[in-house]
Amino acid sequence: MAEQGSALIGLGVRRPQRADARRNFDALLVAARELFAEQGTDASLEDIARRACVGIGTLYRNFPTRQDLFESVYLGEVEELCAAAEAAMAQPPWEALASWLRRFVRYVATKRALAEAMNKDSHVFRACRAQMYQCGEPLLERAQAEGEARTDLTFDDLVRMLSGLTSAGFADDAQRDRILEVALDGLRTRP
Asked: How far apart are CA 80 and CA 103, in angstroms?
C-alpha cells in the first residue's frame, strides 16, 4: 500500500514501522490478493500465510480479522488504481484515459472477489469509491475537453458501463481486451 499522498491512509490496518515487519505485511497483502483472485474470499488464511512465507500468528498480528485483510487488500488495489491515474496524466488525453480504463478493468477482476465480502455501506468502501472517482474523473474530463471522448457520458456512467461489461467474466484475457476495445471505440469521438 502506498503511504504518501493518499486520502485513504489511515482507513485500514496500519503498516508496521520495522523493515522486517513491513516486508511480512506486504508479503501477506500480495499473497491475499493472489489467493482471493484465484479462490475467492473463502481462501484459507493458513494458505495466505504459507504463500507469504510467514506464520499464521504473523497474519493475525497484522490482520486481526478476515475483514481487516479484505479491507487492506481492497485499499491497496484502489491506491494502485489512483497512482495509475496520476501517472497517466503525463500522457495525451485519450491515451491517458484509455490506459487507465484498461487498468481499471484489471482492477475489477480483483475487486469482484472482494466485493462479496466487503460491506458496501462501510466507511472504507465509501472512501475508496470516492477516491477512485476523484482520481479517474479528471482523465475523462480532460479527454472530453480535447474533443476525444463523448461529452454525453459522466464518469459514473463510464464506471457502470465497464463494471457491467466485466460482471459476466471472460474466457481469457484476450477476450476481455477485445471487449474493452469495443467499449473504448464507442466512447471515443471521431472527427
From this structure: 9
Spatial CA neighbour of 37 closest among 51, 24, 25: 51
Kindly tell me if the per-residue pLDDT of 8 is higher than 80: no
The parent domain of residue 93 ranges over 68-187
Helix 93-115 and helix 173-187, axial crossing angle in degrees, nearest 10: 130
pLDDT in tens, 47-75: 999 999 999 999 999 999 888 898 888 88
Judged by average pLDDT, the poorest of 80-89, 138-147, 167-176 is 167-176
Task: Tell me which residue of 85, 76, 93, 89 sits closest to 26, measured CA to CA.
Answer: 76
Residues 151 and 155: their CA atoms lie apart, in Å, by 10
Residue in 19, 18, 13, 15 with CA at minimum distance from that of residue 3? 15
Regarding whether 62 and 72 lie in a shared domain, the answer is: no
Mean pLDDT of the region 150-156: 95
- Please indicate, yes or no, if residue 86 is contained in any of the structural domains: yes
